[in-house]
């Protein structure tokens, strides 16, 4: 007899029961909070998901058009992910962006151009040419504004950074550069013997 007159088996069973109770209470509390959250937010979350789906559908069409216009203006390898981010930002800043993209693409096709210099002068002055300048600036700088509130959408993939990529390190707290966690670590060499 050990634990207050109980056998060792009874004492172990009592200790197991005592340890299991807080886990059950926590689980019950977590499940109850989750159920309450789903019940309260269920209807509003459904509206958010539907709205997000509608935005994605609308953005996908304009991203393709945006990338087509960008490829007319810039003859470099362009990332479609960066293009999607820039299209989203520019569509909020330029109300006539969709029509401007159509004008850029149609002018480039009419001139049968291979490089931007072949058709840029033929673009209509005003908002179409301004939009073209904004797109070119965005791809090179990684931002679409020059102000202090500019939103950076591409840093490592900005075209201005590419020529100096091997000489200029991006500012980072990682000792091995940006996106180091995605690289495979080099194999360890044998420890020197003394």
Protein architecture, described:
By secondary structure, the chain is mainly alpha-helical. The chain has a domain at 44-164. It is 56% helix and 0% strand. The chain contains four helices and no strands. α2 (80-93) crosses α4 and α3 (97-110) packs across α4. The N and C termini lie far apart (60 Å).
Any key phrases for this structure?
194 residues; mainly alpha; flat; 56% helix; 0% strand
Helix and strand topology:
Blueprint lengths: L7 H66 L6 H14 L3 H14 L16 H15 L53
Helix pairs in contact: 1-2, 1-3, 2-4, 3-4
Low-confidence stretches: 54-61
Tally of DSSP helical segments: 4
**Rg for CA atoms:** 29 Å
Quaternary structure classification: single chain
Number of strands: 0
Order of helices and strands: HHHH
Task: Work out the helicity level.
Answer: 55-70%
Largest sheet: none
Strand content: under 5%
Distance between the termini: 60 Å
The secondary-structure class comes to mainly alpha
In round numbers, the mean pLDDT is: 75
Shape: flat
Outline of this structure?
The chain is mostly helical. It has helices at residues 8-73, 80-93, 97-110, 127-141.
């Amino acid at each position: 007899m050990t634990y207050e007159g109980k056998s060792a088996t009874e004492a172990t069973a009592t200790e197991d029961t005592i340890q299991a109770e807080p886990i059950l209470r926590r689980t019950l509390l977590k499940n109850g909070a989750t159920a309450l959250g789903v019940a309260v937010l269920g209807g509003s979350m459904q509206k958010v998901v539907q709205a997000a789906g509608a935005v994605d559908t609308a953005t996908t069409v304009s991203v393709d058009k945006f990338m087509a216009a960008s490829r007319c203006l810039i003859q470099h390898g362009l990332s479609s992910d960066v293009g999607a981010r820039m299209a989203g930002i520019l569509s909020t800043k330029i109300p006539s962006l969709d029509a401007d993209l159509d004008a850029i693409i149609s002018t480039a096709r009419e001139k049968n151009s291979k490089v931007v210099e072949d058709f840029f002068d033929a673009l209509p002055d005003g908002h179409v040419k301004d939009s073209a300048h904004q797109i070119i600036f965005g791809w090179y700088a990684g931002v679409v504004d020059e102000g202090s509130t500019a939103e950076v959408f591409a840093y490592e993939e900005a075209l201005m950074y590419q020529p100096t990529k091997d000489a200029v390190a991006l500012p980072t707290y990682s000792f091995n550069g940006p996106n180091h966690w995605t690289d495979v670590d080099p194999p360890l060499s044998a420890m020197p013997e003394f």
